[in-house]
Here is the input.
Amino acid sequence: MSSETGDAAPSGPKFSFLILQTSVGRKYLVAITGLLSCGFLLGHLAGNLLLLMGPDSFNSYAHKLTSTSLIYVAEAILGVIFLVHLGLALKLNWENKMARPQKYVKKKTFGPGENIFSSTMPYTGIAILVFLVLHLTQFKFGSVYMTQVEGVEMRDVYRTVIEFFKNIWSLVWYCVAMSLLAMHLAHGVQSSFQSLGIRSKQIGQWLKCGSRIFAFGVPAGFIFLSIWCHLQ
Here is the structure.
């Protein structure tokens, strides 16, 4: 039965492809993938806090996390989320630059609504991607030690982490990366909510405050843990 009011709205893969063809659709995807990444960061920090409980607690947590094949599915999904987020964000940034009516020889001040956090988003995003690749290499594929917890043999990830942060340059690199993450989140979290249309005056200030607390609080938590490991 045909419609008399025009063509039916596209659905399925075709609809998903059409979303990517519009800047509004790409902004939605950047916002959603960004917030999903924030959820991962919060969960990762919560798990890393078990370092404070000692080697057995942290190693047991890491063992349970990696003892199922679902971890590979989760890692693949996270990888897609990060790459989609970064790729679309860079594309939007490029489109915005190309849409400007004139190029500036030298930019001395920030434009309306701009600050150091928003203007450096592409650079901090790329730096975070480099950090993630190195982070996986250093820990997931780093030094392997074995231990036993309650009669169960498992990898001693706790020792690997402590060993890494004992090196002062590893600690400095990690703290710099977390500082760049804080800069990225300081603009990204609030911007994600705005892109999704959550910008009413009633909750706008609460979102801004909460976004800044998250943006600086989570990286600060990671930095604290890295310094704590260095001092062990």
